[in-house]
Amino acid sequence: MSGTFVGMPAFPEAAREAVHDQTLRGNLRHATHTIRAKRRTAVAEVSDWAELREAGKRIKDHTLRHLDRYLVQLEESVTAAGGTVHWAADAGEANRIVTRLVKETGESEVVKVKSMATQEIGLNEALEEEGIRAYETDLAELIVQLGKDRPSHILVPAIHRNRGEIREIFAREMSEWGRPAPEGLTDTPAELAEAARLHLREKFLRAKVGVSGANFMVAETGTLVVVESEGNGRMCLTLPETLISVVGIEKIVPTWRDLEVFLQTLPRSSTAERMNPYTSTWTGTTDEDGPRNFHLVLLDNGRTDTLADEVGRQALRCIRCSACLNVCPVYERAGGHAYGSVYPGPIGAILSPQLRGTASEIDASLPYASSLCGACYEVCPVAIDIPEVLVHLRERVVQGGQVTREGNKVVLRPAKGHAAERAAMRAARWAFTRPGALRTGQRLASRTRRFHPRTLPGPGRAWTGTRDLPPVPAEPFRDWWHRTHGGKDETK
Amino acid sequence: MSSRERVLGRVRRALADVPRDDTPYERAVARDYLGEHGERTVEQTVDLLAENLADYRAIVHRTDAGGLAGVVAGLLRERGSSSVLVPPGLDEGWLAATGVTRVADRAESTPHELDRVDSVITACAVAIAETGTLVLDGSPDQGRRRITLVPDHHICVVRVPDQVVSSVPQALERLDPARPLTWISGPSATSDIELDRVEGVHGPRTLEVVLVG
Amino acid sequence: MRVALFLTCVNDTLYPDTGRAVVKLLNRLGVEVDFPVAQTCCGQAHYNTGYRYEAEPLARHFSDVFRDYEAIVTPSGSCGAMVRELYPRMGERARAEGRGDTLATALAPVVPKTYELTEFLVDVLGVTDVGAYYPHTVTYHPTCHGLRGLGLGERPLRLLRAVKGLELVELPGAEECCGFGGTFALKNADVSAAMGADKVRNAASTGAEVLCAADNSCLMHIGGTMTRLRTGMRPVHIAQILASTEEEPAA
Prior knowledge:
The complex is a heterotrimer.
Chain A: H1 11-19, H2 22-44, H3 49-65, H4 67-80, E1 84-88, H5 91-105, E2 109-112, H6 116-120, H7 123-129, E3 133-136, H8 139-146, H9 163-177, H10 189-206, E4 209-212, E5 216-218, E6 223-228, H11 232-238, E7 242-248, E8 252-253, H12 259-270, E9 278-283, E10 293-299, H13 303-307, H14 323-327, H15 329-334, H16 345-355, H17 361-365, H18 375-379, H19 386-399, E11 401-405, E12 408-412, H20 419-432, H21 435-447, H22 461-464, H23 477-485
Parallel strand pairs in A: 1-10, 2-3, 2-4, 4-7, 5-8, 7-10
Antiparallel strand pairs in A: 5-6, 6-9, 11-12
Chain B: H1 3-14, H2 25-28, H3 42-55, E1 59-63, H4 68-79, E2 83-86, E3 101-104, H5 111-115, E4 119-122, E5 126-128, E6 133-136, E7 153-159, E8 164-165, H6 168-174, E9 181-184, E10 189-193, E11 196-199, E12 206-212
Parallel strand pairs in B: 1-12, 2-3, 2-4, 4-7, 5-8, 7-12
Antiparallel strand pairs in B: 5-6, 6-9, 10-11
Chain C: E1 2-5, H1 9-14, H2 16-28, E2 32-34, H3 44-49, H4 52-66, E3 71-74, H5 77-96, H6 102-107, E4 114-116, H7 117-124, E5 137-140, H8 144-150, H9 155-161, E6 167-169, H10 184-187, H11 189-204, E7 210-213, H12 216-228, E8 234-237, H13 238-243
Parallel strand pairs in C: 1-2, 1-3, 3-4, 5-6, 5-7, 7-8
Helix pairs in contact in C: 5-8, 11-12
């Protein structure tokens, strides 16, 4: 994944900083609460939401179950429509393919539609190394690129920035990249959008190569779909002579008709709109309309490894709407950067450790970045049971077991750093299967209760640093029951 | 081994645990959702289209065939446009009442040339009432995709009720996936600043829709 | 009707008042309650932290202890959800791992007859007015596993609205998690504490004296935050409110 995230600390450490950043907390709270309420309204407008959600889930599950067949069908239909299909097993290969295709055009700059797949593979950095400049054209991506920042949200990568900060970035950085920001730029969103329009216009009009991802690919027709708002997508998809789309293999749907489900659920879940301002669909190339050359790069990069996990594979249903981020209480407080990946929030916490494996500190910590409150599952338009996958990945971290990495089955050892916890869990299991031992422990706690400290040392400090401990009662319930109800068969 | 074979091989191995299932696709996925939301008369459907277009800040006008040329001329005049892009198959009568310079939609035009045109007028392929969406499919009366993108002012004429459907599923049924499609719901917009919607970014900042019945 | 009280290990050890309240309440409603003393822990903390294999013997033990009762009642949304939602999943996982049906079969009997307390009152006993008296201003926090796992919905609120003397005030952001989340409270203490503080601020903004919930684990976290932030509010389990009467009022 993107080099900008290499060497991230584990989630709790990264989150600690964010939690105490009052500006960030305020920005995230404002943005997520705004969109939460709107999403609820947009979803309530359609009486058949549950049925749409179920259909979306089934379409994706069916596609994944027959993914090889649909990939081959897609390749045939895209090729028949005048496109060229490339296959990339990993990020490095995808970057090499795109770099070669750009170089073949003789150009040294590309305009980009917002795309998670190209962020995931670190395409901009790879192009930069080969002397090709990639201009991000989505407003939030532009803010991130100009601010030399990292994305912190799937839909709105600059969600951690408020209007004042955005104004400052534009005023300071735009001149480095092209047309400077207008004199006297204020922080009203309309003026900031206007500044982006002016800044990017010249780049769109002269662009010869566009790079995009896609929200959907239709196997039967070879059609690609990009869902967007600003029109930067349309610019990149129609003005250049060459279009290169890098798309994860899980983005396939079998039939044209399937779009009727996702074009209803995606806009309402992501921007809380009945329909987003612009959706473009294209099938190969069209004579005298749009790019003359179309290349589709099909990206694996950990997706087939994810597919091999029977619990975790449901994460591949994801349509990147970001409803789960917007509703997540942990994301709201920790911010997107703490997740150490272009995929933050609940979906990121189950996607990154599957795409990248759980070897790094950050990836091993992500499955724990959740209170398992279930709000993400409730809003997911393709019903990904995120808590279920989180717990499953926790098992992988602490218990180890068989996983697939780069197509090969390997057996993971339990992760380091959980030894004390594992011992405690085993001891608790031992006591909890022996009621007598539990009772002895409870009595001991009750008898010594006057000596319990108010704050705990060591790992216990994690609790008492911010919360008081409950007082231990004079006797546990079971002793009261024994006294008043004459306990029998106590040692069963 | 090619990457194609490598990826397909990985997919097949990943699915080794999944029981074989040859149910045809039409029966594999239950579609219990609605074909459209609510029951409406034709007239109500057109009203809903107008309402939803306006809700996303498109400017809606209604007229009949006889009044269309006058309405179009008036819109170009109010806008102060001196030039208008015209797709090759547009009904000439629509521009009968205006003297504004016509610019033809030609393959040779550069994006910079298009950027100097004030307005564009097109028909559409279908309009969706429930979502307030216009779909353009590149037919001769709609032109190349870029002509409705670069100019800042788009006038789109919808023949009502023939071109209006209620829902997204009904629209997809009418559309040909082989054509390049542009779905337009209001002027360009963004939610990228504090997740609040603002209209007007790269696409036309003014979208005027004329419903002709 | 004779039911088993599954009190949960946390309540047994730290909140015996809740257990006494459940017994008192159910007895008052004519239900005979047994407390099988061999009961320990449902295994939720193990399971949710990733130690499914350590949770399995606890689940088997639970089933051994409770399987012969007509109904199993627990004053905990999350432990109730553990049995109802996750025991079947544990059985499925064992099956998928090629370990046969024995775990699924062993756990199956307890799954359908385990009820969270408010569910048992409203759905099984069919009562919403339990004859309680509690002259205090109360705000209700729906805990996540009760709300989204078990789907308790309006049940707790219907019970609270029928309590004499009780003034119920709405909690802003009620459906947001309080930040407890079991071992999450320790592993991600900073985020957990921030969530807790926001929950407590919302609760304090209502002016209520009492924050009520159907799960003492969450109340332990919220209550610990309340005293640390000196709000003057107290956390009270819903069982204690419903058990309170004019003759024997609870604090």
